[in-house]
Please model this.
Amino acid sequence: MTDFIYGLHPAETLSNAAYHALDAVGKSDLDRIARSPLHWKYAEREETAAMRIGSAVHCAVLEPARFAVDYAVAPEGDKRSKAGKEAFAEFEAANVGKIVLSLDDAQLCTRIALSVQSHPRAKTLLQSGHPEVSLLWSDSEFNVRCRARVDWLTPDGLLIDLKTTQDASPAAFAKSCANFRYHVQAAWYLDAYQAATGDLPGGFIFIAVEKTPPYAVALYELDAEAVELGRFLARRDLARYANAREFDLWPGYSEAIQPLSLPKWALNAEIEE
Model:
């Protein structure tokens, strides 16, 4: 297991794989705990296809030189035919150790990267700084090792997070923030930077880019109210984790019989009919 060394670590000294091997709590852990401690304990932590594409997109946008070296595009054709088998065998021999993408996935990565680089403000924000910076610290209140991995960190301490989304409009992305707890992430990362470095962060910015044409880009910064709510939820979830760990009790949902009502939209739909 990777040694846990408090502080700020660039990607060159702490790889993504090493980061995820750390025995520490990150934002994804908080999300599982928010559902229940039992869901955290039994969570599947294998990388999914969606996660692999997400990593490829991040690499194409934030580390284009590494993307060109680490990724390879699989040849098209029927692998069952003799010619297809030979072509794929030659491809594999020439790209040992590389991450293989389909042509469609590679084109998606390239188009998203071009769109982000074509956005004047996004391009400026990504001109100086470091990608994939890890922040490691220990929470003094709960005695829990914690972690965060920033997509892009500028020299003045501005934390930038790249999000791919179906709809990057303000109303839709606000819903995404609520649904996927991006406000918890913003608070967690801002506090992570201060805890790991001793300095105040310069802010937290989302670069939201759509996954379909025209791959529109928008930049957002959550207001203070949203960040404070995220901080409250993060502290609540961390407390639940610390308590479960201390007593080795990982409860799921309530054991009581609970009253249940239909959501308002379902009731309204019935009335309107």
